[in-house]
Fold this protein.
Amino acid sequence: MNIFVASLDYAVQEEELRGAFEAFGEVSSVKIVTDRETGRSRGFGFVEMSNDDEGTQAIEALDGSSLHGRDIAVKEARPQGERSGGGGFRGGNRGGGGYRERRDRY
């Protein structure tokens, strides 16, 4: 099970995040997402647990809990195709039609 963890304090390390989840079962991987340019944490990450039941228990127990003094949000991660919202240049009409002369009709 892939788990999304948000609202992480920027100082949280992957080992600390792993430790919080290992209390509920085997952790396959941990990845805190970082800014490409600065290398600084972006405040969220992913934890993968090999057993779905243990992952569900971790989500229920850790969602809203405190890590480094911040309440974290923990949810099952959705595959990229299921995400809502936009971003980037993936199409859609984003407006910006340019200058249009106004003509008043009498």
In short: Residues 52-62 form the longest helix (11 residues).
